[in-house]
Specification:
Elements lengths: L2 H12 L24 H20 L13 E9 L3 E14 L2 E14 L5 E16 L2 E4 L2 E8 L4 E7 L2 E5 L4 E13 L4 E14 L4 E14 L2 E15 L4 E15 L7 E16 L4 E14 L6 E13 L1
Antiparallel strand pairs: 1-2, 1-16, 2-3, 3-4, 4-5, 4-6, 5-8, 6-7, 7-9, 8-9, 9-10, 10-11, 11-12, 12-13, 13-14, 14-15, 15-16
Length: about 325
């Protein structure tokens, strides 16, 4: 099937996603998708279906459904005694198209919390979108959606996008600009989150690197809002013996406002320093640990509240 025919069908499908005066999109009538899906979601799935049809027509002699199967599958499990157990299964697939690469990732997870009483959670996550290379720059435009279900009866759905651009400045330096927009909805409220970050990474060698960056996060839910500004830096090392070490520090400034509680607005400032390590054992087993110290100034307090913590994990990749 010719590419101009596929593009014409795509334009006809997306043309149905029009905004009403109240900014609500008209439904997209795709016969093989349930009407309860969001119109934009159906349009995105229709786009994937058209790309899959083109791929099937282009690959002569191959099965038309081969590209739907993940080319790489990862499995992992983590257990923190007295805290939680988590199992995760991830499948990834890349589809090469003219001038771009379409990446799709599906993630299934199951978590059991054990702090006070056992609570189980199940989640599914889908990330799909193009990755485009233009000279020394790489642009990724993923669309992400997911759903979490809890044994206590709660369910939350979320969706958003996370575009990012990475620019290579020579062989040892990378600059990344990233933005994220997401919305999470449950039975209680709808939460929105927007963030932007700029980071720089310098590689001294194949085993040593330095990363520094700035990040700003805005969150709102109900009548409460939170604005966080953060600077961070880390030094990462990979030793010949198999150990991986990371020394990280950060400074953050949190401003939150709301109409509930005794204080309508509050400002918290904190500084943290952490040392983490990871080591690969035999047969896919990993052990990791982290030591972290945080100093936090709440409001106008002159004396910081200190928090010191340590964590050790034992997990396995299948």
């Amino acid at each position: 099937m010719a590419w101009h025919t596929l593009l014409r069908r795509l334009r006809q499908t997306l043309a149905q996603v029009k905004l009403c005066p109240d900014h609500r999109p008209h439904p997209v009538h795709v016969p093989f998708f349930p009407d309860r899906r969001h119109p934009l979601a159906r349009a995105a799935i229709a786009l994937l279906a058209l790309i899959g049809l083109a791929k099937a027509q282009a690959d002569v002699g191959s099965s038309s459904s081969d590209w739907l199967l993940p080319s790489q599958v990862y499995g992992s499990s983590q257990w923190l005694p007295g805290d939680r157990w988590e199992g995760r299964l991830t499948g990834e697939r890349s589809l090469l198209l003219p001038g771009m690469e379409w990446q799709t990732s599906t993630d299934l997870s199951r978590t059991r919390f054990e702090q006070m009483f056992p609570v189980r959670a199940q989640g599914v996550k889908l990330s799909t979108g193009p990755k485009i290379r233009i000279g020394a720059a790489e642009l990724s435009l993923p669309w992400i959606t997911g759903r979490d279900t809890y044994s206590v009866g709660g369910t939350s759905t979320w969706s958003g996008s996370a575009p990012r651009m990475t620019l290579a400045l020579g062989s040892n330096d990378r600059v990344r600009l990233e933005a994220k927009v997401s919305r999470r909805k449950d039975s209680a409220m709808t939460q929105r989150r927007r963030s932007a970050s700029l980071s720089w990474r310098h590689s001294f060698s194949d085993d040593w690197s330095l990363t520094a960056g700035l990040r700003q996060v805005y969150e709102s839910g109900g009548t409460d809002t939170r604005l966080t500004a953060e600077t961070y830096a880390s030094v990462d090392a990979r030793l010949d013996s198999g150990w991986r070490w990371s020394l990280a520090s950060s400074l953050s400034d949190l401003r939150q406002t709301g109409t509930t509680g005794l204080q309508a607005s509050q400002r918290d400032r904190s500084a943290s320093l952490s040392l983490s390590t990871r080591y690969r054992l035999a047969d896919g087993w990993w052990v990791s640990s982290e030591l972290k110290s945080t100093q936090t100034y709440h409001g106008d307090e002159q004396r910081a509240a200190a928090n010191h913590s340590g964590e050790m994990k034992l997990y396995r990749d299948f």
